[in-house]
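Protocol step 4 of 6: record predicted structures for both targets in the notebook before any analysis. Target 1:
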Amino acid sequence: MTALLLIDFQLDFLPGGALAVPDGDALLPLLNDLQPRFDLVVATQDWHPGGHRSFASTHPQHAIFEEIEWQGLPQRLWPDHCVQGSAGATLHPGLDLNRVEAIFRKGTDPELDSYSAFFDNGHRRATGLSAYLRARGTTRVFVAGLAGDYCVYFSAKDARGEGFDVTVIEDATRGIAPESMAAAKADLLALGVQFAQAAEVLA
């Protein structure tokens, strides 16, 4: 079984959203076209309770995008985004969900951020995605979505750590900054993660 993970294609991460990834909405046709090529399609949602401690608004002495230590972990402080039940937390309305078998929500612990689709940032709690994929017989995982240098990167890294063969569909993701995208790719390649273009997958 080969699975496609569609990471956080939510309105707050798209142009006009609270934490927009540049050109993120351009991925929509690719994300829809790719889905029929896979045995299993799973989506994820950032799903923060209000007042999440990754929000700069909960640390008034610090600024947005500043990095602090929280719960013994480095924590970048973000604008309020993907708050449970908010419009910004919803998946893009144009994303085809007919083939999406399950949606895994992450970042629900108010004290801990969760970039990865598999674990919170401290690896203290699993989302259940790994067990779900194994139960469905998945051996290979392809990753696409937002943002390439954060949630896609950490999801691919954890998928590899969980023993899956992992491929990032490079042109089906977008990042916040070119430098962090390059660093993420280098790290993933060193871990044995592969990279492919959508055209290769669609062929």
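Target 2:
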Amino acid sequence: MKIKSFVLASLVGVVLAGAANAVELKVGYVNTQRIFRDAPAAQKAAKKLEGEFAKRDQELQRMAKQLQGLQENLEKNSVTMAETERRSKEKEFAELSREFQRRQREFREDLNLRQNEENAAVIEKANKAIKQIAESDKFDLILQDVVWVSPRLDITDRVIKALSEAK
């Protein structure tokens, strides 16, 4: 019995000593989605990408309308068309459809690649701003992408402001 009491007393002593020596941890949180949505650098990158890809997007839209028109024409007039004309229109539709799908796939791949490049640049700038805030305000830990966080720990507005000033 004395051994159990001694072990229990020792454990309580260790826990109390640890609590007395504990240093308060300063924690912050940054909402990455808000950075991508609200930061001037992210908005500028989005406009840049929009301008870069606008012409190709318009071309894809034009091709889609052309495909739709061909399909409607085939559905409406295939019964009254001559066999050779119908086959010719079907072949034209199939070729245009393949070309459209190929261009659409290339467009998506190129856009995703450029978005990733621009997002990486925004994240790099944001990480620099976060590091400066952490050092100046003596944060011990700054988290991103958590399930839940108290609003009092959220420093996202400060990071966005720092990114605005950094331009």
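Step 5 preliminary note on target 2. Residues 4-20 have pLDDT under 50 and may be disordered. The first strand starts at residue 27 and ends at 30.
Proceed to step 6 after PI sign-off.
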